[in-house]
Amino acid sequence: MAKIGRPCHVKDIAEAAGMKERYVKEWLGAMVTGSIVEFDTSEETYVLPPHRIEVLCRQRGHGSTAVVSEAVPAICEVYSDILKCMEIDGPKGLSTLVCEIGCSSGTGLCRLATDYPNPRYYGIDISQSAIKTATSRADAANLSNVTFSCADATRLQDDWEAKFDVVYCMDVVHDVPRPDILLEEIHRILKKRWIFHHGGY
To answer: Which is it for the CA torsion 141, 146, 151, 154, positive or negative?
Structure first.
């Protein structure tokens, strides 16, 4: 962006960097939120202001204060992995298994299945009517990578032992009669290198 030196659309920035447009858009969102990059809402363009270039880019020789900002990725092991994913010829996505416990009518899971099609998604809920709605939603969107089923989250399938890479739920754990049993089941169905996310109000 410093080399471009003018407001640009996401597509132009991605092409100049040789990176995937979707990933660049997500990154730009974080940069705008952090008041590093500026966004013009009317033109939908992004620009890196000149006064920030000096501290972020070595365009003024080795005396630039950019050396400080360059130290951040140097000490962050995940930085290079993220950069590789953003590249045009980088990984296309992980073939992971994801389970949402308490998926309700499937709005969130169908959105994930649409935006990130490589993983395989499973949604469970104790409400039969909610699962019926979720299944209809997936069918209407022609989603073949998501499956919904009615089940008690404290008594999940025996063959789900160490099955999932990611399990998440929203406003569920604190609402069940035995959260301890639910958490034990979640631990059982997760693989050894696992991710569990619980959100709530």
So the answer is: negative
Of the candidates 58, 125, 175, 22, which has an alpha carbon nearest to the alpha carbon of residue 134? 125
Give the DSSP H or E segment for 163.
none
pTM of the entire structure?
0.59
Any idea where the domains of the chain sit in the sequence?
10-86, 97-199
CATH superfamily of this structure's domain 97-199:
Vaccinia Virus protein VP39 (3.40.50.150)
Half-sphere exposure of 164 (CA within 13 A, CB side): 23
Residues 6+ apart with CB under 8 A from 93: 116, 117, 118, 119
> How many angstroms separate the Cα of 43 from the Cα of each of 8, 24, 81?
9, 17, 32
SS (H, E, C) 166-189: EEEEECCHHHCCCHHHHHHHHHHH
State pLDDT tens for residues 60-101.
Answer: 555 555 556 666 665 665 666 677 777 777 666 556 899 999
* Euclidean distance between CA atoms 104 and 182, whole angstroms: 17
